[in-house]
Structure formats: structure tokens, C-alpha cells
Design goal:
Strand content: under 5%
Shape: globular
CATH superfamily of the domain at 96-174: Tetratricopeptide repeat domain
Mean pLDDT: 92
CATH class of the domain at 96-174: Mainly Alpha
Length: about 270
Amino acid sequence: MRLSFTLFLAFLTAFAASAQSYYAYVDSSEVYISSKDWEKAEFFIEKALEAEPDNGNNSLLLSNLATVQRYAGKTSEAVRNYSLALFMTPNAVTLLKNRASLYLQLDSIDLAYSDYERVIKLDNKDLESLYNHGMIAIGKRKMGISRDDFDRIKAISPRSFYAINGDAVWHMAKGNYSNAIEGFGKIIKARPSVDAYTNRAECYLATKKLVEADKDIRAAIELDSTNGTLYMLKARLDRLRYDEMQLPLDLELAAKYGISKEEIKQFKKQ
């Protein structure tokens, strides 16, 4: 009896020490997360998981670990740990959104689409997920699904960026350029951005409104002068204007700022 009691006390002591170590490691990881020292944050989170592998908080801890690894550029490890956390808490909306956004970063479009679909089933008022799901659906040419997503956003928050930009992108994809131009104009008025100017310029090019396209491309370049895609867009405008002097200069800038030789070669063949 005395031996059993002694063993029980030893167990309690070990358990208490383990718990103290666990929360000490968690606290340390949070300090390093705050200072963006991803290597040390990862180390202490992993030590906490080793100390108490069955702790009920480990889903959150695995999520933190995945996010730290994502910032550290360890994307495959991040995907694995988001997935482990979701195995423990499969209906965690934030976890699903984090993994979906990482899948988008990795161009794993189908996997991102699936995660956003799960989020929407759990919370059909999540604007960001509805928007991203709708945008991916456009890329998949699932125009009816994307229309439903954007209509849902408009019903919840009609003046939001998600509602206006989603609607404009949908109309652009459908070739309804006047509606798209109107929508992008609203975005530019409220929040000028490279994407908004670029999208509206694409609409202007499609409708042969070259002066307006030129203004938008130049406005986009003012916001981001090292974006090679903008110089490729400018090269398309040069070609439509038969500007043989400016065209090679813009292609040179496109190459300088990241556009591949193969893409430029294909453009020249067109």
C-alpha cells in the first residue's frame, strides 16, 4: 500500500513537472512569435508538443507551429501541421482558412477550393472565403457557382471590397466590360491598387479604348514600377498602337522585372 502511494506521488510530481514544462514552452514560443524569431518559436512549440503529446490544446499549438513554419518558408511542413490540427478539430474555420490560403500560395488551387467549400458549409457568411471560393470558381469556369458566391456577399455586405471587386471580375470574365469597368472604377476611387488599374486596363484593351488603357497602365506602374506584368500589358498596348519604337523598350523592362524569356518569345510570335 505504501509503495502504491509512493508511486502515485511520483506520478503526480512528474505530471505537474510536465504541465509546467508544457506551458513554459508555450509561453516562450509566444515571446519569439511576437519578435518574429521563427526558428526559436518553432523550437519551443515542438518542445511543448513533445512534453505533452495528448494535451487538448495541441490543435491550436499545431496551428501556431504551421503558421510559424509558413513564415519561415517551410511550406510542406506547414501544410502537414495544419492538416494534423484539422484532424483533431475538423470544423475549425480559422484552420481551414489558413490551410486554404497556403494552398493558394502554393498554386494548389483544387485543394484551396475544397477547403473554402468546407468553410462556407460551416459559415456561409464568411466574406473572405466566399470571395476566394468565387474567384477560384471563375478560374474553373464555374460561372454559376461564382455568381452565387458574389451574390451572397452582396446580400451581406453590398458596399464591401469583396462584393464590388468580385462582381467586377465576374463581369470581366463574362465579357461584360462596361459593367466591369464601372465596378473597377468604384474600387479605384475607394482604394487605388495595381490590381484594380490592371483589371480596368484589360477591359479597356478588350474594347479598344487605348487612351483610357494607357492611363490605367501608367497609374499602375506609378504604384509598382518593378512589376514585369505591367510592362507586358504596356507592350500589348504598344502593339495595338503600332508603336514599334516603344514596344522593344517595354519588353526589355518586362524581362528586367521578372518575365521569362519564353513568355516574351511567345508574345513576339503572336
